[in-house]
Request: fold
Amino acid sequence: MSSKPVRYVDAGVDRKKGDRLVEGIQRLGAFRRNPDLAKRLKSTIGGYASVFEITPKHWIAATTDGVGTKLKLAFESGLHETIGQDLVAMSVNDLICVGARPLFFLDYFATSGLELSVASRVIAGIARACADSGCLLVGGETAEMPGMYSQGEYDLAGFCVGSLSSSELLPRRRLQPGDRLIGIASSGFHSNGYSLLRRLLDESTSFSVRGVPFSRTRRALVRELLTPTALYPLGVLPLLGEVSAVAHITGSGFLNLPRMGEHVSYEITLPPLSQRARVFTWLHRLERVSFSECAQTFNLGIGLVLAVEAKKAKRVLSRLGQQHLRAWDLGQVVRRAPKQGSQVLVRASELEGASEALLEY
Reply:
C-alpha cells in the first residue's frame, strides 16, 4: 500500500468546484421574477435550509439532500435497512440549524429496474427515521430508468419541510468571542466523505486495527461504516431556546462552523478517540490522511456543534445528558484576525499527539 497521503480530491471530489457552483447558483437568485414572494425569503441558497414567511409569525423551512457514495457500501453488502435513516437524517439535522421542527418528508428513489425486496427495505428505513424524528413520510417518487444505473443499484434524494416562528430563527444572536462551542457525538462518519473512505477501504490490506475490535474481514468493516447517521431533532429541539447558533458537521467537516457567523473565528479541541465512535480510531491509525484533510472532510466524531453563551454552557451540557446525547465543551468563539477570513483551529486530543489544523473559510 502506498504511503503517499490521500486527499479528498484524489478520490474524485473537488470541494472548491462545489463552492464555485453554489456561488453561481446564488447569483441566479437575482433573476427571481416574483419580487413579492422574494421578499418573504428569510434565508436561502447557501444555508442549511431555505426559510420562507407564510405569515409574519409563522414560517416554514425546506431542505434537500442525498446519501452520496455511502450507497456503494449498501450495494456491496446487501444491507439496505439503514440507508433510509441516512437520507432522512441529512435533511432533518439541517433543519435544526435554522431552528425548525421537521413536519413532513418526501423521498425520490431511482433505479434501473425495481427490486421490490430492496426498495421495500430502503423505504421502511425512511419511514422509521421520519417517526424517530417527529415528522411524517407523506409521499415520494419511484423512477425506473433502464440503462441509467447498473443492475442492483439505486439513488436516493430526500426533501423535508419544517416549521418555526420568527422568534425561533437561528442564529438567534450575533456570536461573540468567549461563546462556548458544545459538540454532540456523531454515530460515525454519517454520510460524508465516503468517496475517500471507499478508496481507503479498497487500498487496505488488513481490516483490523490493534485496539479496535473489528473482526478481520472487509465485510465487518463495511458493516461498521454503514452505521446510520444520528437523528438529532427530538433530543436537540427542546434546548434551542438556550442556544445562539447550530452547525451541522456535514460535508467540508469543521468548515461548517463559520456558517454560524463569518465575523468571528473558532477554536476547538476534539475529545479523546476513546470517547468517539471507534471507526475514527481505524481512520487515525491508517495514517493515510493528514489531520488537516480529515478535519475538512469528516465530522471526526462530532455531529452537531451548538454555540451558547458561556454562562449557559453547563446547563446546556446537563440538558443534553438528560436527552441521552453524549456531548462535550469543545472550545470557544474567538475574535477574527484583522484582514483575514473566518478561521477554524481544530486540535486533536493531547492523547493523540500534537496534531492541529487551521482551516480557512
Q: What stands out?
A: The longest helix spans residues 116-132. The two ends are 33 Å apart (CA to CA).
